[in-house]
Amino acid sequence: MSTQAKDAEKLMIQLRDVNKWYGDFHVLKNINLNVKRGERIVICGPSGSGKSTMIRSINRLEEHQKGDIIVNDVTLTNDLKNIETIRKDVGMVFQHFNLFPHLTVLENCCLAPIWVKKVPRAEAEATAMQFLERVKIPEQAKKYPGQLSGGQQQRVAIARSLCMNPDVMLFDEPTSALDPEMIKEVLDVMVELAEEGMTMLCVTHEMGFAKTVADRVIFMDAGQIIEENEPHEFFNNPQHERTQLFLSQIL
Ligand code: ADP
Ligand code: MG
């Protein structure tokens, strides 16, 4: 097999029988999921179904209690070294941007490369400017997050993640806090990223996005993966009653 073919076969993320409880509440129930390098996965499902918990567990923003999560061949354990290793490989974009308000856009982008990856400042700034160009806001580099629109802030958040050169990007409802006219500018950036071959897991209800870029759509309900399929089948021929009900409510 060629190196390229092997790379494509490589599993970026594996969740094996993952279970998590918040106190007595069983929030993730036997989650099994394999994500190959370059694969783009959209996760949808009703509010409270465990989507954020699942995606946050992948870089240990939440701790699971049972089962295995393996990212890039590293198994998530309580070992801080493993957590740090995984976080270097995994970028995350949140619903509410989570930028540092007291730092400029450029400083937001350079912070982790400088302090976590020990990249020299000049190099970190040059890389940050490249990514700000890619998300089409280089002219905002010296501003503070509070001076930007929501759509611009979310594009900074994406650029900031990319500055760490992640192997996989996790998105948790990146457009749901945005005014409608700003959704497209963020989705456009995400579509470009997908087309460049980034491995992506996106929690989103933007079904147009799912149809355009997803290799697979996963439907979660009550802490379980109920159904998964390639987008055409998923939308046109949902098998499970709960999937049908969900799609009838959002489409
Ligand atoms: P989704 O992202 O699909 O809306 P979440 O993963 O945020 O779902 O939440 C799943 C369930 O877990 C919800 O019922 C939520 O109330 C509960 N939950 C989320 N975070 C916590 C927490 N820190 N402590 C207790 N319960 C939580
Ligand atoms: Mg959520």
TrEMBL record:
Residue ranges occupied by any ABC transporter domain in the UniProt entry: 13-247
Alphabetized GO MF terms: ABC-type amino acid transporter activity; ATP binding; ATP hydrolysis activity
Entry protein name: Amino acid ABC transporter ATP-binding protein
Bilayer topology annotation: Peripheral membrane protein
Location of this chain's protein in the cell: Cell inner membrane
Source lineage: Bacteria, Pseudomonadati, Pseudomonadota, Gammaproteobacteria, Oceanospirillales
Keyword Kinase: no
Species for this entry: Neptunomonas phycophila
Pfam families, alphabetized: ABC_tran
Record GO cellular component, one term: plasma membrane
Database matches in Gene3D superfamilies: P-loop containing nucleotide triphosphate hydrolases
Transport keyword on record: yes
